[in-house]
Specification:
The chain has helices spanning about 10-15, 60-65, 115-120, 130-150, 210-220, 255-280, 280-290, 295-305, 310-320, 335-345, 400-405, 415-425, 435-445, and strands spanning about 20-30, 35-40, 50-55, 70-80, 90-100, 155, 165, 175, 205, 225-230, 245-255, 305-310, 350-360, 375-380, 385-395, 430-435. It is an alpha+beta fold. The structure holds one RNA strand.
Length: about 475
Amino acid sequence: MDIKRTSIKDLLQSNDFDKSVLIKGWVRTKRGNKNIAFIAVNDGSTIHNIQAVIDVPAFEEDLLKKITTGASLEISGTLVQSSGQGQSIEIQADNIVLYGEADPDTYPLQKKGHSMEFLREIAHLRFRTNTFGAVFRIRHALSFAIHKYFNDKGFFNIHSPIITSSDAEGAGEMFRVTTLDPAKPPLNDKKEVDFSQDFFARPTNLTVSGQLEAELGALALGGVYTFGPTFRAENSNTPRHLAEFWMIEPEVAFNDINDNMDLAEEFLKYLIKYALDNCKDDIEFLNNMVDKELINRLKSVAEVDFVRLSYTDAIKVLEKADQKFEFPVSWGVDLQSEHERYLVEKHYKKPVILSDYPKEIKAFYMKQNDDGKTVRAMDVLFPRIGEIIGGSQREEVMEKLLTRIREMNLPEEELWWFLDTRRYGTVVHSGFGLGFERLMLFVTGMTNIRDVIPFPRTPRNAEF
RNA sequence: UCCUCAGUAGCUCAGUUGGUUAGAGCGCCGGACUGUUAAUCCGUAGGUCGAAGGUUCGAGUCCUUCCUGGGGAGCCA
């Protein structure tokens, strides 16, 4: 008589008492004495464990001895109402099959809590902890919600290339992609590396943004988005930066900067609400163990109207601030972290969308305002994590775009395909980039971005 | 990359103005306990004090360089 495996998530929601059930999973803890033992088993389907009750004399001593924290097994038995405190349902075990032992002398995970720094060193095993189980279930749910949101709105997902020959985005240092031998690369007459002999017959890099390609898609399909890995070879050592991260970049034809802000705000609120509605157990756990204010903060951001403020007005607010800044504020300077934090966390106490920045501190492709000084850029600033979204209305007028490209000494010839969209059937359009891991930081309450991606890539670290 | 703090047992940490044999809690292992909840109680084992140099009669402790990690800054998402 074979019983089919039930997920622990399903089992904990059932009240089919006295029914024969079978679970498979990993041991979290075992407690007990010579007569009775309790095994808490987790199978990853939920943060909650199910408790199996063992009538010790009915099992082989050698088998029970090998059931230690981390071991994998299957347990079959009868689903019963618990006679102990702390859980309402448990399994009265009839049979146990041990799959894999976990030597307690060397298995690094203990029953007690570990520091995030230690768990990061054993990233291959940290999935098995409550915290990282919760984090990565939420990561999946948010990833799914992103596709659902855009699909429901009629957007199309564009798979922008990961290898690019364009280095004109200006979004940061790039990782070179090459098949040339670094020890003896072919040289040309000028003793420079001869990339014509490389795989793509030109220098290529990992993408720093899918935006330019997304624009091409938007100017035919209307609303599109990319959601893929992004690579920045910056030597950034902070709790908010990764060398490899995931970015969502919607791009919409006929949207101006205000439509863009509406989209960004609606999108973020949708994702936060989705997590609150669909990851309740995991978020409650994180609220209890990681960040006591998490749920309150998520609820308030999901409901509040974001502040919308021009850069120029933000400067006025900062100049009047009753606080000394390390970096003085004046019109034209780029805002520092301390300025953004003041606006979001002290002055307004809610998310702020800043727009219309001086053109000198923003990218070439941004729509120029009639004042000749500012561009229609927008940054969404969140409490705790700062810039979560950066975007803009794009310059759709060929002459203005070309002028800007030449002023900034960008390689006009390499951008011929991008410029063609302005040459043929150009339209107003806008888009933005959302850093997925920064969203994850906000939704999970975790404080280091290396703990919301399974295997973080940072300077001098590509383990696993 | 810059500033700053740290690195001592499997984990989290203490270790005095430099002084003999480096400690604790938790975990592991052994024992006790008939319903446990990070179980409890008793006991044992467990150390290249991040690495390499240097100062000193003597260095976990002071100096130099490097490595690793945390926090802050810059770059950005």
